[in-house]
């Protein structure tokens, strides 16, 4: 058994140390250069306002014109001076209906994509590529419903690239040259994110999960071997612990005893980032829970929103019809945050604000097997809501249930969105992933640059340790 463990650690470690070195180096880069994204605020700010005077088709008429089953979402946006309804259905299906003529919208052309992008940034376009289904910066599955995209290049100093979806004509991604450069060495290397692998989610998920698990096993075996190979020597009145190795192997042994625990916890927590429901619960509500939370379908919700109702909002670039606890709301997304309205008796809209009572009733309907114990706003120092990544917004409400899983449900009180479902399993996951992987620990996370110094020191030691392993492996193979 000892010989088998040594062989596994040695030969598998030769390959894995290359990955470890890349993970430690790219992890340091990723801290300061996150993956490119177009924020909701920036997208809304630069989008063209809808000309509500051209709306002649009601939301319910748009659903009928789509000729598809009940939508999961309905939005109203501008498309080159025309109001259009964007209907989202399950299984990544999108249908666009003209708000002026009730007809299905033709796919966005190359020329139209260039004009849309030029208005978005108010800069001259260099060229338009595509349409393309995938590239490195739109490989995530959240873009699946909108594929294919046009890739629009600009002549500015930042070498900006915008991605315009062919389905709705919306700008959904933005990258700068510096972001692209850093992220090839950061996120792409760290997440093993090359387009050819990542575009097939199941393949990428399985590949990274098994590779990370192999890294956990190999590192644990190395730690066990490191401790078992220590020698205890007696000298007169004391004992001395020493390594029987010399040279690079001595450095690998000694450094491994100190940094090996961090390497193991980091690889282990990185493996958990790929859990996706295998061991721990998922943070997303089930489709049935979403429907029960709404109380009525989106189709039913649109019946109380007339064409004239949009005139109350006037200047808007995007509105969405939503439902909570059987009531219809119109959500106006603005650069200053969302604003809620509700239909009134005269087919107009009145400003609205969600109440805790409404949310509790909706949750008790969706989670009918449980009762609400309490509802409160998470504090700024909340260890489960204020994280380095994935923090809850200030508008979040936490509703605590008395079910066996001790579930917490987080709701955004500005727009009624179910932000997360956090049961006991998910709270354990918070410590094993966020806590171990990014040192998201109370008293440390918000104390910078102390946090930076500690994590960069550990990442550097891990990188050095991995490079030593690569050198040792190289010599073993070629000497």
Could you name the key traits of this structure?
single chain, 479 residues, alpha+beta, Nuclear Transport Factor 2, Chain: A, 15 helices
- DSSP helical segment count: 15
**Biggest beta sheet summary:** 7 strands, antiparallel
| Helicity range | 40-55%
User: What coarse outline follows from CA principal-axis ratios?
Assistant: globular
Count of DSSP strands? 17
Mean pLDDT: 92
Structural class: alpha+beta
What is the end-to-end distance?
26 Å
Q: Please give the radius of gyration in angstroms.
A: 27 Å
Beta-strand level of the residues, as a percent range? 15-25%
Strand order of the largest sheet: 3-2-1-10-11-12-13
Low-confidence residue ranges: none
Describe it.
The structure is a single chain. This protein has 479 residues and is α+β, with helices and mostly antiparallel strands. Among the domains are: 2-34 and 198-278 and 449-478; 109-175, Roll (Nuclear Transport Factor 2, Chain: A), CATH 3.10.450. 42% of the residues lie in helices and 21% in strands. It contains 15 helices and 17 strands. 33% of the residues are buried. The mean pLDDT is 92.
Short overview:
This protein is of the alpha+beta class and 479 residues long.
Write the layout of secondary structure elements.
Blueprint: H1 2-32, H2 40-46, H3 59-66, E1 73-79, E2 82-89, E3 93-98, H4 110-121, E4 125-132, E5 149-154, E6 161-165, E7 171-175, H5 177-185, H6 187-190, H7 195-198, H8 201-228, E8 231-235, E9 238-242, H9 247-272, H10 287-294, H11 298-302, H12 310-313, E10 318-324, E11 327-334, E12 337-343, E13 349-352, H13 356-366, E14 372-376, E15 396-401, E16 408-412, E17 418-422, H14 424-437, H15 450-478
Antiparallel strand pairs: 1-2, 1-10, 2-3, 4-5, 5-6, 6-7, 8-9, 10-11, 11-12, 12-13, 14-15, 15-16, 16-17
């Amino acid at each position: 058994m000892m010989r088998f463990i040594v062989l596994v650690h040695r030969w598998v470690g030769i390959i894995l140390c290359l990955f470890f070195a890349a993970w430690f180096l790219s992890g340091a880069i990723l801290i300061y250069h996150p993956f490119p994204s177009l924020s909701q605020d920036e997208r809304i700010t630069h989008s063209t306002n809808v000309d509500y005077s051209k709306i002649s088709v009601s939301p319910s008429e748009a659903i009928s014109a789509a000729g598809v089953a009940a939508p999961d979402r309905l939005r109203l946006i501008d498309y080159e001076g025309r109001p259009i309804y964007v209907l989202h259905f399950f299984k990544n299906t999108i249908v666009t209906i003209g708000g002026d003529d009730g007809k299905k919208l033709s796919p966005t052309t190359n020329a139209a994509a260039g004009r849309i992008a030029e208005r978005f940034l108010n800069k001259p376009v260099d060229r338009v590529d595509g349409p393309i289904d995938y590239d490195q910066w739109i490989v995530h599955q959240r873009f699946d419903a909108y594929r294919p995209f046009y890739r629009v290049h600009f002549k500015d100093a930042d070498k900006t690239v915008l991605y315009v979806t062919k389905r709705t004509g919306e700008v959904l991604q933005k990258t700068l040259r510096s972001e692209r450069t850093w992220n090839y060495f950061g996120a792409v290397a760290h997440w093993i994110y090359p387009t050819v692998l990542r575009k097939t989610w199941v393949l990428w998920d399985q590949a990274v999960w098994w590779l990370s698990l192999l890294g956990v096993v190999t590192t644990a075996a190395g730690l066990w071997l490191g401790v078992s190979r220590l020698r205890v020597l007696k000298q007169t009145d004391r004992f001395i612990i020493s390594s029987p190795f010399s040279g690079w192997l001595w450095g690998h042994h000694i450094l491994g005893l100190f940094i090996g625990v961090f390497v193991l916890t980091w690889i282990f927590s990185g493996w958990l980032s790929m859990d996706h429901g295998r061991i721990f619960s998922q943070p997303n509500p089930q489709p049935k829970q979403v429907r029960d939370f709404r109380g009525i379908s989106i189709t039913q919700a649109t019946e109380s929103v007339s064409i004239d109702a949009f005139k109350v909002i006037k200047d808007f670039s995007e509105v969405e019809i939503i439902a909570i606890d059987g009531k219809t709301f119109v959500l106006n997304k603005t650069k200053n945050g969302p604003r809620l309205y509700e239909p009134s008796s005269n087919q107009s809209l009145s400003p609205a604000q969600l109440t805790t009572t409404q949310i509790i009733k909706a949750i008790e309907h969706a989670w009918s097997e449980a009762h609400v114990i309490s509802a409160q706003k998470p504090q700024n120092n909340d260890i489960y809501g204020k994280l380095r990544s994935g923090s809850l917004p200030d508008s979040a409400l936490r509703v605590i249930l008395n079910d066996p899983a001790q579930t917490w449900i987080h709701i955004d009180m500005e727009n009624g969105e179910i932000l997360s479902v956090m049961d006991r399993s998910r709270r354990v996951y918070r410590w094993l992933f966020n806590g171990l992987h990014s040192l998201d620990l109370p008293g440390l996370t918000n104390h910078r640059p102390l946090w930076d110094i500690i994590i960069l020191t550990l990442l550097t030691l891990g990188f050095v340790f991995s490079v030593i392993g690569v050198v040792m492996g190289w010599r073993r193979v070629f000497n």
